[in-house]
Amino acid sequence: MALRPRWTAAAALVLASVPAGCGGEGSGSPPVAAGIPPTPSPAPAPTATPTPASTDDPLFAGASIGETIVGPLVCSDGRVTTGAQGEVVGIGPITQIRNTDTIRITYVGPDSYRTAIDGLASLAFTPDTKRVPPSPIYARYSAPSAGELLLGQYSLGFVTFGTFTAPDLCFFAGGLPPGVLNRQTVDYFGIVDGLGVVGGVQSRFFNATYGEARMIFDFPTATGLFSFDLVQRSDPFGDFRASPPVKLGTVSANVVLAPGQESFFVPLSGAGFTGTARGRFVHDGGSILGPNIGGAGVALVYELRSPAGDLIYGSVAFAANLI
């Protein structure tokens, strides 16, 4: 199997899309953040351009063999049900969500990955653990002894997203070593994935081209804001993209980076939910076009609850084209 090509300017931030079933583009604008100095109005967020799904390894945040992506991880305590090959097919009642962990995934070689979470032993996923994915947006690796790793098949270049189950079902986003850009205002667009229980019904919350996910960050003042739509879909452990999307509303948050920091933990609210979001800025300092040129990302996870007892948790992979 051929190795993936390195990221190039010509391919910058084109989404490797999948078969239809998403619906039309969303609309709307990001929230207004109090206390952020005025900046020129940014250009509209880039529009996702469908292209055939990759048939090679997942496009893994620009990582080469031997490199490790790092990112936040959010998990629930629901007991998962697995199939004969270790693949997740369901989950029991969820009472708690943990938004404190960090995941490290090393690209060992073609179809080979090694995962490690704070304080836990590492797990290996090899070519013989590659399985048929539940949805074409993911590549799936699973085994009864190792759990399950789903890696997003969208070509974001400098950030990735997915799920990791061993044994808790967790969502993550990640990228190469974190960094804050030496630039002015950067406009990011994102892909959202998550799981929720709303009205007693388990649903997937996936948003790529139906709805909006956007972050605007002003690096000189270290302040910004982000928002994303909550798009509900049925069949949460199957091909959920084929189900009709239902937009519940929009959540948003302001972000302020402390001096010298690349990570943040902020309150998140909207659509009748409140919760938290935790993220880190990432970029490829070794871009072929030089530092701070080419592409960048923000890896983010979130958890939300409503007064009625509904809950949602998941990840957002934000990407920006800096050319």
Task: Summarize the entry for a quick read.
By secondary structure, this protein is an all-beta fold.
Task: Describe this entry's structure for a reader.
The protein is an all-beta fold. It has a single domain (12-17, 40-321), classed as Lipocalin. It is built from no helices and 20 strands. It has strands at 68-76, 80-82, 88-91, 97-109, 112-117, 123-125, 130-131, 138-143, 147-152, 160-165, 169-174, 185-198, 201-205, 213-218, 223-233, 246-256, 263-270, 273-283, 295-305, 311-321. The protein has a 9-stranded antiparallel beta sheet with strand order 6-5-4-1-11-10-9-8-7, with no helix packed on it. Strands 12, 13, 14, 15, 16, 17, 18, 19 and 20 form a 9-stranded antiparallel beta sheet that branches. Strand 17 and strand 18 (273-283) form a beta hairpin. The protein starts with 67 loop residues before the first strand and ends with a strand. Keywords: Signal.
